[in-house]
Amino acid sequence: MNGVNVLDMRQLKYFLTIAQEGQVTRAAKLLNMEQPPLSRQLKLMEEELGVKLFERNGKGLILTDSGELLKHKAESLLLQFDESLREVKGMEEGIRGVLSIGSVVSCISLLPKRIELFRERYPQVTFKISEGDHFYLGEQLEKRAIDLVVARLPFEAQKHPQQYTILKLPSDPFVAVIPSSWTDYSSKEALCMKDLAQFPFLTLKTDKTTRMHEQVVNECKRHGFVPNIICECSSVAIIMSLIAGGIGATVFPKSVMSSFPTTVVKMLDIEDADFQSEVGILWLRDHYLPKRAQLFIESFRSDL
Questions:
Q1: What is the DSSP string of 15-50?
Q2: Do domains 95-169+279-301 and 172-276 have the same CATH topology?
C-alpha cells in the first residue's frame, strides 16, 4: 500500500468500519452506501494485499491475524492523516475552535481563572472539559479525544511516561480538612500530624490511582501512626460531603479547597509536615497539538 492516495484512504475507512461493525450490511448503513459496492471494495483490498482479512462466522465477520494487523496500522495511519488535516486547517482558521482538556477532580480548581483570562484574549476558543482518573484521561489522550491533561504527578496511566511531555506547575501543600461541627478546633488555624491519629479518616483512592493515598498514609506513618481509614472513595465531592456531614476528616492538596465552600468544613494547616502534591500539565509527545492548546499551556509558564 505504498503511495497512499485518496481512494486508498477511503478504502481504509471502509475496512475499519466493517471491522468495527463485524458486518458488511451494518457498515454499509453507517457509510451511507449500498452493500454490494462495499463488498467489492473489501474484495479489492484483499486482492491487492494478497491476504484474507476476514473469516465468516455465521452472519458476522471476524478479523484474521492479517486483518488485525491492518486494523491496528490503519487506525494509526488515519489518525495521523486527520491530525495533519487539522493542522493545515488550523493555520488558516487562526486561534479558534474547541480546546479539550482532561482533569482529575482535585485539579479542577486550577482551571477557572486560567480559562477566564484565556477567553479574554482568545474569545473564539471554546472549552470542553472531561473529568476522570489517570487511566481514563490517559486513554482519552491516546484517542486524541482531549488535547491535554491537568493532573497530580506522577501520572499513573498505562502509557509509558516517556510518551508524555510534562510541564510541572508549582507544588501544592497538603492541608487537613475536618467538619466545622468539630468545635474543639473551631478557634484553631493549624494542627499537628499526631492530631490526625484520633480522627476517623477518609482517603481519595481509586482501583488504579493510589499515589495520593499512599503519600498521605506514608506521611502519617513517618509521624508514628497508621490513620484510622473508615472510607476510601474515588470522588473528591463525595469525600467533602461526608466531611460536611461530620463523618470524618481527610488530608487534601490546598488548591482543592477553592472549589468547595468552607462553611460546613474547616481547613487547617499542618504545622509539622511539609509534604507537597506535585501538579503538572501533560500532552502526547511527538503528536500534533493545536495552536490553541499550545497557547493555553504557555499561559501557565508565566507563573513558573
A1: HHHHHHHSSHHHHHHHTTS-HHHHHHHHHHHHHHHT
A2: yes
How many residues make up the chain in this entry?
Answer: 304
The residue extents of the domains of the chain are 6-91, 95-169+279-301, 172-276
Position with higher pLDDT, 278 vs 303: 278
Rounded-to-integer distance, Cα 199 and Cα 152, Å = 25
Domain 95-169+279-301 fold: D-Maltodextrin-Binding Protein; domain 2 (3.40.190)
Lookup: cell for 221: 506513618
| Average pLDDT score over residue span 261-280 | 90
pLDDT of residue 288: 84
Cell 509509558 locates to 160
According to the model, what pLDDT value does residue 79 have? 77
Amino acid at 32: N
Tens-place pLDDT, residues 159-215: 777 889 999 999 999 999 999 999 899 899 999 999 999 999 999 988 878 889 999
| C-alpha to C-alpha distances, 212 to 134, 202, 219, 224, 275, nearest whole angstrom | 12, 12, 11, 19, 11
Class of domain 6-91 as given by CATH: mainly alpha
Top pLDDT among 170 and 78 is at 170
How does DSSP classify residue 179?
E
CB 145 within 8 A of CB 130: yes
Exposure of 65 by Cβ count < 10 A (0-12 exposed, 13-18 middle, 19+ buried)?
exposed
